[in-house]
Amino acid sequence: MKDIARQQMSIKVESMDMLNAQIQMEGRASASYLAMASWCDQRGYNQSAGFMYKQAAEEREHMMKIFKFVNDCGGNAISPAIESTNHDFSSLEEVFETALSQEIDVTKSINRIVAAAKKNSDFGVENFLQWFITEQLEEEKTMRDILDLFEIMGRDGIALKLIDERISVE
Amino acid sequence: MFPMERINSSHYYTFFQSDKERCFYIDLGQKLVRLSFCQLLALRQKVWSINIEDHFDEDANPHGFEIVSLCNREHLFILNTLEVLDLKELLTGAFFLLDIAAQTPSLTSRA
Q1: Which reaction(s) are listed as its catalytic activity (chain A) (predicted)?
Q2: How many helices (H) and strands (E) does chain A have?
């Protein structure tokens, strides 16, 4: 009997399912950053808004990277449906705290896929996700560094404006 | 039709592979459906996304039926709870035997 299915797809179906769930997660993260950008924009935190717009675009890029990988491997990439994005934040600090916990969730999810790929000897997937592991370390560090500014500079009045001016959009 | 090899059978359905046509067939009782590999993946996705718990919830799915379209809406099937579960089992086994599933497939992983 010919190995038709294996000839058509290079990755395990379990990996494909997990990568599709990751596509969904990255899509949700992108939408969430967009909501944060809107919140910042409306309150005059222009640098933070710019930063969040950039993050939204980055998360979408991540999503597209995984999407393309699944299809390139012969799998069935599923376009994500994004539901109920939170637009309510009580402070600029909460915006960045939410961003950090979102990044931590993404890191955990990537780690779970890598662990499963390793267990299933799906080394192509494991190799593909190495870039994401490095990327997530950077993302978490960026958010932590910004949250440190609140500790150093305070949380009231002019401090918030000064923090916003220090947020790099590059 | 070219000769086919039986890959897996469940209570109601049988899954075949045709080497010559490089495709798959599922005997769904009333109908023999031909599927390319990507159509097979799409069917799997559809069947996996069915929330079987809804079948036991009067409000979510009062009649306990699912309408499943196959091969870009070329075929339409109405399945009851047992048939949905059986189709899930058929596909889980088939993917395992086709050697593109992990060592320990789980029926409940996406149910």
Answers
A1: 4 Fe(2+) + O2 + 6 H2O = 4 iron(III) oxide-hydroxide + 12 H(+)
A2: 6, 0
Residue B105: what pLDDT? 47
Q: Does B97 touch chain A (CB under 8 A)?
A: no
pTM for the predicted model, two decimal places: 0.87
Length of chain A counted residue by residue: 170
Contact A13 B44 (CB under 8 A): yes
Q: Does A127 touch chain B (CB under 8 A)?
A: no
Chain B nearest-CA distance from A134, in A, is 26
**In which element (H, E) is residue B44 found?**
helix B37-48
Lowest-pLDDT choice from A67-76, B31-40, B93-102: B93-102
- Is the ipTM higher than 0.90? The answer is no
For residue A20, give how far its alpha carbon lies from the nearest alpha carbon of chain B (Å).
10
Residue A168 burial (CB count, 10 A) = 11
Question: A with B: how many residue pairs have Cβ under 8 Å apart?
Answer: 59
Say yes or no: B19 contacts chain A, CB-CB below 8 A.
yes
Helix (H) or strand (E) holding A108: helix A92-119
Fold adopted by A11-77+89-166:
Ferritin (1.20.1260)
pLDDT tens for B2-52 read: 788 899 999 999 999 998 999 999 999 888 999 999 999 999 999 988 988
Task: Report d(CA A62, CA A132) in Å as an integer.
Answer: 8
Residue spans of the domains in chain A: they are 11-77+89-166
Q: Quick check: A22 pLDDT over 60? A: yes
Q: Record the tokens describing residue A117, joined without a space.
A: 């790929």
Inter-chain CB proximity B102 and A3 less than 8 Å? no
Question: Taking CB atoms and an 8 Å limit, are A9 and B37 in contact across chains?
Answer: yes
Spatial separation of the C-alpha atoms in residues B85 and B82, rounded to whole Å: 5
Count of CB atoms within 10 A of residue A139's CB?
A: 23
